[in-house]
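#dry-run=false #mode=assembly
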Amino acid sequence: MTRLYRQAVRCLAVLAALLLALAPLGLAHGQTEPVKIRVEVNDRGFQGTPGDFTIEVEQGQLVELTFVWAHQGYIHDEHIMVLSGYNLEWEKISSEQREATLQFIADKAGTFDFKCDLDCEVHDYLQKGHLKVGKGGGGAAAFTPTTLTVTPSSWATAGDPITLTTVLTDDKGAPVAKADVRFFLRTDFAGTEDAMEIGIVKTDTNGVAFLDFRPVLSAQQQTIIARFDGKGIYGESGQSIEVQQIGVPAPAYSMEPVGLGPASKWAPAVQVQEAAAPGLDPVRYWAQVALAMIILSVWATFGFVLYQALGVARVRARR
Amino acid sequence: MEPGAEQRLEEVALRPLTHTSRGWYLWLGLLLLLTGGGFWAYSTQLQRGLAATGMRDTVVWGLYISNFVFFSGVSMAGTFVSAILRITGAEWRRPLTRVAELTTVSALLMTALMPAVDMGRPDRLLNLLKYGRLESPLIWDILVIPTYLTASAIYLYLFLIPDAAVLRDRLKGKASWLRQRLYSMVAVGWHGRPEQRRRLEIGGGVMMLLVIPIGVATHSVVSWIFGMTYRAGWNSTIFAPYFAVGALYSGMAMLITIMIVFRRVYHLEEYFTEKHFRYLSYMLVAFGVIYLYFSIAEYLTVSYKLEGGEKLLLTELFFGRYSYLVWPGFLLGQILPLLVALRWARALPILFTLTILVNAGMWIKRYIIVVPTLANPLMPYEWGVYTPTWVELAITAASFGGFALIITLFAKLFPIISVWEMTEGAEIAAAKEEPGSAAARPATLAAQSGGHGND
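#status=ok
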């Protein structure tokens, strides 16, 4: 009996050790249970509090924050909640869609403000929500890894525009929607080498976003960096793209007049009498000529005056 | 000129060039600190972009453009006044022309710098020339400011040539080799020969006539950047003369301020006399009254019609969030300085304070023209918000530091009063007293370095 008891204790100890060792793996990838918080939004503010309203979590915890539409009076009021610091934006809540939920990992300690971002009836009451994230809490949730794929990853161009297709997925290949992907061009300017932001796109429900890019710098080799900074439960990811200049970049924009152009170009079926002679309006033309003549005359006079001043030196030389 | 007066004039004018006090070094250190701080702030702006400033999508112009308008105004009085006084033959102009012209050039350099700083990326300045359209007032600005700067620099240079020859001859062996080379180059072999005088008179005469319309055009164009825009606060037909008069008012005050400082520091009491400050004060009052008239005309007509967003803007200006700037700017910068018409207010400490107030008021006026109009909502949404950041404040301080630094360094290299013009004036006066004497034929420009040059 004693031996059997000892074997049972050993087995339990091994099991316990195994559980302890594997625990972090279990917490990773959002497998841990989130701390669920529900906040009612009603006629008096968050949970009926018109002033400051604070919710508290511990650093590292996986948080599931749900805003619940609970108006009694303002039945047409709608809200979109945003949380600063974590850059999170909830879906719109209204009498028709009463709840909006987002999960995120509270990795940053401190106090962050959440508020309604719409011009609603109780706007003033919904500006003082606070999320307090305590330092060194027991939370150990880990971000879900993501993969950012941009195609094409390299191309050669003579300044022609190209569409960069971005796909953001998690570690299981599922699309990550409503994520901001930022594009930077690595550049050297006035002795400062850094990444210059050239665009930002948001992924759709398929995790896909597009950026139209037209290289206008004259460097032969350029590197574009696409970056997802992480958001909610998703970790950051990025990719770099190489651009090879093979010719002189075209001008960034056309100096041609902007407009729909002759109707024949967009409505060939309709017969339209074209304007007689394209060109500058005569008043504008002569005004430009006059302005150019005035400027040239002034600068020519400067030249004449400087010629006189140089003449001073020539008098000395002749002596 | 009284016996010994010419020698005393040279001694007084050239002494600051050869003697340097500890105070001068301290002053230079302060100015270098200010400009250095500005460079540091600008490097921050280059790295972080215009996000380092308080300018955003609604209020797209802030301190930089306010400074731009302010310095362009300060630049007006110098060359303009100098040219008008020369053309009209006002004899009392002689000691102050150099300070006036220098003030213009220094202020114009800061004027030209500000739009480049405001653009964020200075390399895009070229785009204005490459892709700009002549219909745009911004392009007119790009064309007219370098033109005015060039005209003012040539104007300053032409009348510096005879004095540079004096320096070349008097400081031979006393100044460093580099300085002697500089004076020799600037003097371009001047020995006061009749042909040299003739050429200088032709060049100077042409520039005198040319610089006045260019100055007026510059300030008109600066005003049209705003006046050509259909926005509450800017939509005005009188902006061009309004700005030109404001520029004369502001520039005249700056000229008086600088003259008082030089009078005190360089001991120029004999040359910057009570008469000069009295005449300049009269001009300041005249410009101030005209400017006041324009201000009343502008605000009265606009507030009577209350078109578009004017009501909202005027309410904010006079009773709202900008009233703490508008009223002190108006009372201290436009009303109080008119006291210089009274004799007691022309005592130099009071005059100095009042001219400083004029420029403080005019700077506020420029800020009020630029920022509240942009913050005024075009659509019924919230007002734009603008709060200058430390980067903008540091660059603003550096622009004022740079303005003073250019004047300080110039005054260390060249006499701040025009020695040859003073001598010429004395000879003309002597000729009037003794008609038929040798002095009746003013050799003026020749008097300074008659043939003993070293080159």
